[in-house]
Amino acid sequence: MTTEVLRQTVAVFSKSYLPLSQINIRRAVILLVTGKAEPIDFIDNNKSITVHSPTMVLLVPPQIRLTVNHKERVWRVPAVNRREVLRRDKHTCQYCGSMKHLTLDHVIPLSKGGKHSWDNVVTACESCNNSKSDRTPEQVGMTLRQPAKAPVHPIVAFAAQFWREHKILQREGLNN
Fold first, then answer.
1. Domain 82-140 coded CATH 1.10.30.50
2. CA distance 139 to 133
3. What is the DSSP letter of 114?
4. pTM, whole model, 2 decimals?
């Protein structure tokens, strides 16, 4: 039971209500007890997590808001390299969906004036990369599953995911 409680996470919002991250329950308790965060109730008060200590019982809400100014880390778009492109494309060929024998492919080949940039490099399996060869996807009749683009700031990605999930939870709550 204790380990179940400790495995739960809490959403953290900035002072201006921007979703920042998910943290573990221990970190949330520390922020609440030290006054560095306050509870916010977006969904339901019944969703609070009960944490017992030898001297008190603490209700930790599913979302907390920092009361201190959050110092934003400087984030730069990562360099275009194999690891980062594979991460962006979720280790999946952008032509056929395979997850085996992955390589990098320039959508517009370098020999045809393409650049080694986020909007021109995708993950491709060896088979698709060989089929495409030194041609554009249109010339071979291939289409990308999703357009190549630079990765987004982690906080922006987290905020988008949080609000998508919140919308789903809200709809489920209305249906019950």
1. yes
2. 10
3. -
4. 0.58
Nearest to 87 by CA among 145, 162, 161, 151: 151
Portions of the chain given CATH number 1.10.30.50: 82-140
Per-residue three-class SS string for 42-84: CCCHHHCEEEECCCCEEEECCEEEECCCCCCCCCCCCCCCHHH
Q: How far is CA 12 from the centre of its chain?
A: 14
Six-digit token string for 14: 């900035």
DSSP reduced 3-state for 23: strand
Q: What is the full per-residue pLDDT of the chain (176 aa) written as tens digits? A: 566 767 788 888 888 888 888 899 889 989 998 999 999 875 555 677 788 788 888 888 888 999 988 666 667 888 999 999 999 999 999 999 999 999 999 999 999 999 999 999 999 999 999 999 999 999 999 999 999 999 887 777 777 777 777 666 556 555 55
